[in-house]
Design a protein that fits this description.
Pfam family, one: zf-CGNR
Protein name: CGNR zinc finger domain-containing protein
Bound molecules: zinc ion
Largest sheet: 2 strands, antiparallel
InterPro entries: ABATE, ABATE_dom_sf, Znf_CGNR
CATH architecture: Orthogonal Bundle
Number of helices: 6
Order of helices and strands: HEEHHHEEHEEH
CATH topology: Jann2411-like fold
Mean pLDDT: 92
Organism: Streptomyces albiaxialis
CATH class: Mainly Alpha
Length: about 190
């Protein structure tokens, strides 16, 4: 029987979608890229298809992921960016040799090198993180309001008041919890 792996939670923003491959960091953490081929799968659905990934490359990808998470968390809290995280992000960005190419239909695609595809893909993710952390893009870094999650996400809502990393999971769970609490309360007053 093939092993089952947790689904991906894909966002619209590459860098925070990547940090979301480890979720519930303050609860029962869920590693969504537990093996190299799941990182290959995630990259494919994120527009960065690569042929292969080694265990060492997965380790490097996770190192980048945690650096982005640390930097994004600091930025969301208004703290100074951790120097070690900045170094890791810059290192990955500098190693990447991906080329942005324009399709005849007017879409941007990433062209990765044949021998360095994984590194190039990580370089694209690192550069995406840099553009968010540098405040170049329209939006605000924030942390999920769920106490067991606290994922960093990029809020592009008009009012900048988004509370959850993901409405279908964290947002929904919170709504249900509030509903049950209200029910308990009204049951209590009826007695
Ligand atoms: Zn969340």
């Amino acid at each position: 029987m093939p092993a089952e792996f947790p689904d991906f939670r894909l966002g619209n923003v590459l860098a925070t979608s990547f940090t979301g491959t480890l979720s519930e960091r303050h609860g029962d953490a869920v590693e969504r890229v537990p093996v190299p081929h799941r990182l290959v799968d995630w990259l494919a659905v994120s527009g960065l298809a690569v042929d292969s990934c080694t265990v060492a490359q997965l380790d490097r990808a996770r190192e980048l992921r945690e650096a982005i998470h640390a930097a994004a968390t600091a930025a969301a809290l208004g703290d100074a960016l951790p120097a070690s995280a900045v170094d890791v992000i810059n290192d990955h960005s500098a190693r990447g040799r991906a080329a942005a190419v324009l399709t005849p239909g007017g879409e941007r695609r990433w062209r990765l090198g044949p021998d360095s595809a994984l590194e190039d893909a990580l370089g694209v993710i690192a550069a995406d993180a840099i553009s968010i952390l540098a405040g170049e893009r329209d939006g605000r870094l924030a942390l999920c309001a769920s106490p067991t999650c606290r994922a960093a996400f990029f809020d592009t809502s008009q009012s900048r008041t988004r509370k959850w990393c993901d409405m279908n999971t964290c947002g929904n769970r919170q709504k249900k919890a509030r509903f049950h609490a209200n029910q308990r309360r009204s049951a209590g007053t009826a007695e």
